[in-house]
Amino acid sequence: GNSVTQMEGPVTLSEEAFLTINCTYTATGYPSLFWYVQYPGEGLQLLLKATKADDKGSNKGFEATYRKETTSFHLEKGSVQVSDSAVYFCALYGNKLVFGAGTILRVKS
Amino acid sequence: GAGVSQSPSNKVTEKGKDVELRCDPISGHTALYWYRQSLGQGLEFLIYFQGNSAPDKSGLPSDRFSAERTGGSVSTLTIQRTQQEDSAVYLCASSLADSRSDEQFFGPGTRLTVL
Q1: pLDDT tens per residue, range B21-34
Q2: Which of A51, B69, B80, B101 is deepest in the core (most CB within 10 A)?
Q3: B91–A45 C-beta distance less than 8 A
Q4: B106 vs A4, A44, A100: nearest CB
């Protein structure tokens, strides 16, 4: 069945550092790919998405590119802020939404 | 408009009791989903409703779990004879339709603790 694997956390960075959170997937067909974020004390919310190969999703300075050849959808941000501290979930949608285990990001000032 | 709401926000119950968790989706959203988020784990799909179609129950972990959606709107997730391993945050989400690109909007969740 479909599955998502993302890097284990927690990831701890200093403010303004470069962020990469790796995500790879296994799926039949051509799923849509998503990154969801859960800020402390808040509900899950969509961060960005890509619906076909080579699409780049972007939002709030975060980017991820749908790479079919490597079945990956790595999340990147050039300069993180303390306010980016949250749990990040990679997900794919084939016939239902399948989530990775989540990666905790902690950004220190 | 209002987002997805869930009640109660917290529920503490004793092992063996039944619990009901409620979800009010965003008005006009035809698709509704239940997930479970256990400590240190990702989100686990439980059940999915789309319009008047038969629900996809493939994620329900046992026959103690059931859900219904009345009038295409409010949904109730029922756990019978709760066990300690049922302790988790139960999340509800809704979307306009079940499509590959529709965003799912999540509620704040119900934290269930089974003693």
Answers
A1: 999 999 989 999 99
A2: B69
A3: no
A4: A44
